[in-house]
């Protein structure tokens, strides 16, 4: 095995390791910005705006209801 072939293999291996680490970091960041859903979306987390924090409304998520930030009209 020539020295340049060995260097190329090492560089390819290091690139692979860097890409895997970067992928894990991106996955961690994506999980951090996604809302936590322990029981799925078909649960009733609220029945009306009174169950939510100030500035939030109780909205349908297509299956259940959950509190979401209020949006301004328009």
UniProtKB/TrEMBL annotation:
The keyword Signal applies. One of its GO terms (cellular component) is extracellular region. Residues 1-28 form the signal peptide. Keywords: Signal. InterPro entries: Elafin-like_sf, WAP_dom. Residues 39-69 form the WAP domain. GO terms for molecular function: peptidase inhibitor activity. This is WAP domain-containing protein.
């Amino acid at each position: 095995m020539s020295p340049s072939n060995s260097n190329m293999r090492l560089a390819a291996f290091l690139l692979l390791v860097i890409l895997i680490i970067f992928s894990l970091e991106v996955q961690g960041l994506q999980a951090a910005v996604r809302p936590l859903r322990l029981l799925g979306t078909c649960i009733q987390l609220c029945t009306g705006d009174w169950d939510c924090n100030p500035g939030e409304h109780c909205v349908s998520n297509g299956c259940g209801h959950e509190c979401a930030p209020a949006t301004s009209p328009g």
